[in-house]
Design goal:
Layout: E1 4-5, H1 8-27, E2 34-40, H2 44-59, E3 63-69, H3 75-86, E4 93-96, H4 106-112, H5 124-131, H6 140-151, E5 160-164, H7 171-180, E6 184-188, H8 195-199, E7 204-207, E8 225-228, E9 232-233, E10 239-240, H9 245-248, E11 254-255, H10 262-285
Parallel strand pairs: 1-11, 2-3, 2-4, 5-6, 5-7, 7-8, 8-11
Antiparallel strand pairs: 9-10
Helix pairs in contact: 1-10, 2-10, 6-7, 6-10
The protein binds 5,10-Methenyltetrahydrofolate and magnesium ion.
Residues 48-49, 52, 95-98, 120, 140, 231, 239, 258-260, 263-264, 266-267 line the site of 5,10-Methenyltetrahydrofolate (GUE).
């Protein structure tokens, strides 16, 4: 038996059709949802992601503006732009593409984004919201994973969820969201001893470690649900996840492909957060 696919591309397409309708409804009342993307430096991967994001905006009736800076930009210049965008009537979401160059302090920059426009969900206030069990802007990748599980009717309450990778943008928020839904969550990371001790316990295994081939068939139990958040560029130009897909798919009950799994969902949830922000702006305008 081979695992069933958690098809993020197909689910994204469905969700984006609904988002276009939502965007149309508010556009008809004079509010155009707008996303500002700030891109620093020349990282080719960042450019691909930013392009994907602005294509998705076009698809969903969201206005997008890209602000590109050379890698030498100062913290101050970025903060000045963010301050303008914070009060702009045309902008509902502000995203600073990560990673930033080493001389720029990420937390200083993210901290300047208005919590009402923080569609990445990275601001400390929104992270805090997640800790106490609710936030207006769930971070896009964990949010997308949650919807993939829901769409396949995979229950998380009472399940053993094992997350490999403890980043601020995937592992940690993912753990908080699934804990809130009633899962028993283990967070593993680069220093975890005997990783397979944990991964073999998983009913649902979520991998975001950035290491191709990290998870092999001997590390998972029968019928595990596998979510591969990894995106690794190979020397032949192809991209691959952190899971040895070809062997694990024979053991898992469900698995995400890479590409076409979590990646497109991340972008889709960014658009959802932006449209929700615009809907909030519209309802505030009407007060
Ligand atoms: N402020 C910020 N917010 C982010 O959400 C953010 C970020 N910085 N920095 C980098 C990561 C990574 N990320 C992805 C977005 C789209 C795909 C995506 O579209 N993936 C496609 C394939 C893309 C390709 O061809 O390379 C797929 O998996 O099918 C992947 C990864 C967002 N991130
Ligand atoms: Mg993917």
């Amino acid at each position: 038996m081979s695992a069933r696919m958690l098809d993020g591309r197909a689910l994204s397409k469905e969700i984006r059709a609904g988002l276009f309708e939502r965007s149309l409804r508010i556009r008809n009342k004079g509010v155009v949802p707008g996303l500002a993307v700030i891109l620093v430096g020349n990282d080719p991967a960042s450019k691909v992601y930013v392009r994907n994001k602005s294509k998705a905006c076009d698809e969903c009736g969201v206005m997008s503006k890209i602000f590109s800076f050379p890698g030498t930009v100062s913290e101050y210049e970025l903060m000045e732009l963010i301050a303008e965008l914070n009060v702009s009537n045309e902008i509902d979401g502000i995203l600073v593409q990560l990673p930033l160059p080493g001389h720029v302090n990420v937390r200083n920059i993210i901290g300047c984004i208005s919590v009402n426009k923080d569609v990445d969900g990275f601001h400390l206030y929104n992270v805090g919201g997640l800790v106490v069990g609710g936030t207006i802007f769930p971070p896009c990748t964990p949010y997308g994973v949650q919807l993939l599980l829901e769409a396949a009717k995979i229950e998380v309450a009472s399940k053993n969820v094992v997350i490999v990778g403890a980043s601020n943008i995937v592992g940690k928020p993912m753990a908080l969201m699934l804990l809130q839904k009633g899962a028993t969550v283990s967070i593993c990371h680069i220093k975890t001893r005997d990783l397979s001790l944990y991964t073999r316990m998983a009913d649902i295994l979520i991998v975001a470690a950035g290491k191709p081939g990290l998870i092999t068939a001997d590390m998972v139990k029968n019928d595990v649900v596998v979510i591969d958040v990894g995106i690794n560029k190979m020397s032949d130009g192809s991209i691959t996840g952190d899971v040895d897909f070809d062997s694990v798919k024979h053991i898992a009950s469900w698995i995400t492909p890479v590409p076409g799994g979590v990646g497109p969902m991340t972008v889709t949830m960014l658009i959802e957060n932006t449209i929700r922000s615009a809907e909030l702006r519209m309802s505030i305008n009407q007060l």
